[in-house]
Design a protein that fits this description.
The protein is α/β, with parallel strands linked by helices. Helix content is 38%, strand content 19%. The chain contains 12 helices and 11 strands. The strands form 3 sheets. It has a 7-stranded parallel sheet, with helices on both faces. The N and C termini lie far apart (46 Å). The relative contact order is 0.14.
């Protein structure tokens, strides 16, 4: 399209970002913190911005990003176009809509329920002492897999345990530098690291079409997070499996969460090496 684009994010060198703004740039893809930093330095002028897109709007309106988002929306012209993108638009997003959008229109591709027909959901009832071995067996399958852990430390620990078990795995979470995140994602896309262990926040940046399995090692916080996790597989019409490991004490809450997400899942009481686990997930 012959458009000048630049990436503005923390944890990266200021020099190319400052140069891009000195030259003039058509499209800026930015994280709020670094863009405000450049704005406060006087290096950036947003008075000519015609279109402002807020990606993952529900997340940006929630997780403490709201003050930064409103600072930036106040800095762009009020008569420009504003677009809010997300798989789920609810909660604090309404505040942004009321304050910044004039006569807004909603465009919906898919409802907030799991409606992808090429996606299979499997509910794995596992005993606590079998959890690590089950995770390793599933991660050792053919093809690309994304595993979900609840915390940054959990993601790093699981990736390390998998490497010790002989599975090439890397962790992706917000505690890594931008350079490290870029490297691990590139290795995942190339297939040299076929297993990614991610947190919910980091996973929203994973846009790789041929992820054939999502494994939830830890249950998601809510049905919205379940749908975001599930959405890493079965992209662009391909097939995908979403498997959730569930310990006995998590069973009730997980079943309730699947109902809220509109998911019908196959339920298996299983352990490593069992034939139905192999059949459902490709574990080996």
């Amino acid at each position: 399209l012959k458009l000048e684009t630049t990436l503005v994010a923390g944890g990266m060198s200021y020099v190319p970002q400052l140069r891009a703004f000195q030259r003039g740039v058509d499209v800026v893809v930015a994280t709020p913190g670094r863009l405000i930093d450049l704005l406060e330095q006087g290096a950036v002028d947003l008075s000519q911005v015609q279109v402002t897109v807020l990606d993952e709007a529900d997340h940006m309106a929630d997780l403490g990003f709201m003050p930064a988002v409103t600072t930036l929306l106040d800095a762009v012209p009020a008569d420009g176009q504003r677009l809010l993108f997300s798989a789920t638009l609810d909660g604090a997003v309404d505040k942004l809509v009321k304050r910044y959008l004039h006569d807004p229109i909603t465009h919906e591709v898919d409802g907030a329920k799991a409606s992808v027909t090429t996606m299979e959901h499997v509910f794995l009832q596992v005993l606590p002492h079998d959890k690590n071995a089950t995770t390793a067996a599933i991660a050792n399958r053919e093809g690309r897999s994304v595993l979900f852990a609840r915390t940054q430390m959990g993601a790093s620990r699981v990736a390390e345990q998998l490497r010790e078990a002989g599975v090439m795995a890397g962790a992706l979470h917000g505690g890594l530098t931008q350079g490290a995140r870029t490297r691990i994602l590139a290795a995942f896309k190339e297939g040299t690291v076929p297993v990614l262990v991610a947190t919910d926040v980091a996973a929203r940046g994973i846009h790789v079409d041929d992820v054939t399995l999502v494994l939830e090692i830890d249950p998601p916080m809510n049905s919205k997070d379940y749908l975001h996790r599930a959405g890493r597989t079965a992209r662009a019409g391909t097939k995908g499996v979403v498997a959730s490991i569930c310990l006995p004490h998590q069973r009730r809450s997980m079943q309730r969460l699947l109902e809220q997400a509109g998911v019908e899942a196959q339920s298996l009481q299983t352990h490593p090496g069992q034939a139905d686990l192999v059949e459902a997930t490709g574990a080996r």
